[in-house]
Amino acid sequence: MILPIYLYGQPVLRKVAEDITQDYPNIQELINNMFETMYNADGVGLAAPQIGLDVRIFVIDLEPLAEDNPQYKDFKKVFINPRITERSGEIVALQEGCLSIPGINETVQREEKIRINYFDENFVEHNETYEDFFARCIQHEYDHLEGALFIDKISGIRKQLIKSKLNNLIKGRTNCHYRVKAIQK
Questions:
Q1: Domain 5-181's class?
Q2: What is the pTM of this model?
């Protein structure tokens, strides 16, 4: 089922998400819905807070980028109760966007390498290291679980320049080709 994506201004996007257990209700259905919602919005990652749930789960599928970047082929993962345990390497600046902040792309600085502990969809524990774009995508989605957004990592002057666009999102003024949920006034 395609779910609405919560837009900037929704309180759930600023909450620190809670861990879940294996007996979380309809976990496989949730995972399937998250992937379907993400694909419908042409995204490569989606975190539970973006669909209104304050639980620690996100999904990533880089397959849509594999035509130009073969290393992304078959990178489809579910991260449950993730914890980034280490960040290292150079700080790299790249453009990022977010399904919860449509129409805004900004340059964000992130570490090029991370180590993350998480459970997959079968609740098998993993402790893995990722670099480059893999690490960037994971950090972006992980931030959602910590109540942070990519715009929190941009300069004050850039925030001022996008302030009116952010206010429009809060007011529900956006042109998205996917279902969204803005703040109800």
A1: alpha beta
A2: 0.96
